[in-house]
């Protein structure tokens, strides 16, 4: 058993078990319980949801381990937590307390602008963000067991999540239509290892699950991302910045499950109360964009 614990197969398999589900950002035990009861497949423990990180500014770091442990004790579903990009000691701390999954996330303030964490050194699986195929494959080459397209977190605006998912899917289709010999130049242009590019051609998808994140605020948003090819969704601000988080969380779970059934999506979208207000991405400066942090 020891031999396979922490193996690529086990770590990627854990991510696959979350397929088709919603992973919700939570900042307290109370929110974690709401998420679990609403049908989330996992929760992401963090100090502040992305909309508040964006609004309050300052340096955003890994959550207090005491908060993470309290959430782990309160729910039976897997618990994830975020570390700053490149901050391998925050990752060591989370692994030490027995976290189920680590998100090396651009939502927190990067600790290293050049290097991501060497995720092969950890037994715990990692999820990382990507805006395109090259970025996704670089993170997988570093040991990520799950990818999420980045979107623009904390905006309640789906436009960047759509852009990034379409980009990844388009680039995969392009590779599928290439000959073997063309893959070498493509790998160079993507900045990704040739072995992974070949694997994408063979599989017709990423070798790990790819969820959508950043800006999902309604059941229809979640279903849109699923129809565009996401394996599942992450939702943070859209739920806990709305007037009725419990009802919205349940509706987003239903819409993710029945993403290709507009009648169900219509039904669960009724009377959800006030939505998160949201931000026009064009009003953000380059410095305010989280998606561009470390590629
Ligand atoms: O980083 C994340 C995924 O790991 C966040 O959960 C996600 O991006 C949340 O964004 P939003 O608050 O816009 O839903």
TrEMBL record:
<feature type="binding site">
    <location>
        <position position="25"/>
    </location>
    <ligand>
        <name>D-ribose 5-phosphate</name>
    </ligand>
</feature>
<comment type="subunit">
    <text>Homohexamer and homododecamer. In the presence of PdxT, forms a dodecamer of heterodimers.</text>
</comment>
<comment type="similarity">
    <text>Belongs to the PdxS/SNZ family.</text>
</comment>
<comment type="function">
    <text>Catalyzes the formation of pyridoxal 5'-phosphate from ribose 5-phosphate (RBP), glyceraldehyde 3-phosphate (G3P) and ammonia. The ammonia is provided by the PdxT subunit. Can also use ribulose 5-phosphate and dihydroxyacetone phosphate as substrates, resulting from enzyme-catalyzed isomerization of RBP and G3P, respectively.</text>
</comment>
<dbReference type="InterPro" id="IPR013785">
    <property type="entry name" value="Aldolase_TIM"/>
</dbReference>
<dbReference type="InterPro" id="IPR033755">
    <property type="entry name" value="PdxS/SNZ_N"/>
</dbReference>
<dbReference type="GO" id="GO:0036381">
    <property type="term" value="F:pyridoxal 5'-phosphate synthase (glutamine hydrolysing) activity"/>
</dbReference>
<dbReference type="GO" id="GO:0042823">
    <property type="term" value="P:pyridoxal phosphate biosynthetic process"/>
</dbReference>
<dbReference type="InterPro" id="IPR011060">
    <property type="entry name" value="RibuloseP-bd_barrel"/>
</dbReference>
<keyword id="KW-0456">Lyase</keyword>
<keyword id="KW-0663">Pyridoxal phosphate</keyword>
<protein>
    <recommendedName>
        <fullName>Pyridoxal 5'-phosphate synthase subunit PdxS</fullName>
        <ecNumber>4.3.3.6</ecNumber>
    </recommendedName>
</protein>
<dbReference type="Pfam" id="PF01680">
    <property type="entry name" value="SOR_SNZ"/>
</dbReference>
<feature type="binding site">
    <location>
        <position position="154"/>
    </location>
    <ligand>
        <name>D-ribose 5-phosphate</name>
    </ligand>
</feature>
<dbReference type="GO" id="GO:0008615">
    <property type="term" value="P:pyridoxine biosynthetic process"/>
</dbReference>
<feature type="active site" description="Schiff-base intermediate with D-ribose 5-phosphate">
    <location>
        <position position="82"/>
    </location>
</feature>
<dbReference type="InterPro" id="IPR001852">
    <property type="entry name" value="PdxS/SNZ"/>
</dbReference>
<comment type="pathway">
    <text>Cofactor biosynthesis; pyridoxal 5'-phosphate biosynthesis.</text>
</comment>
<feature type="binding site">
    <location>
        <position position="215"/>
    </location>
    <ligand>
        <name>D-ribose 5-phosphate</name>
    </ligand>
</feature>
<dbReference type="GO" id="GO:0006520">
    <property type="term" value="P:amino acid metabolic process"/>
</dbReference>
<feature type="binding site">
    <location>
        <position position="166"/>
    </location>
    <ligand>
        <name>D-glyceraldehyde 3-phosphate</name>
    </ligand>
</feature>
<feature type="domain" description="PdxS/SNZ N-terminal">
    <location>
        <begin position="8"/>
        <end position="213"/>
    </location>
</feature>
<keyword id="KW-0704">Schiff base</keyword>
<feature type="binding site">
    <location>
        <begin position="236"/>
        <end position="237"/>
    </location>
    <ligand>
        <name>D-ribose 5-phosphate</name>
    </ligand>
</feature>
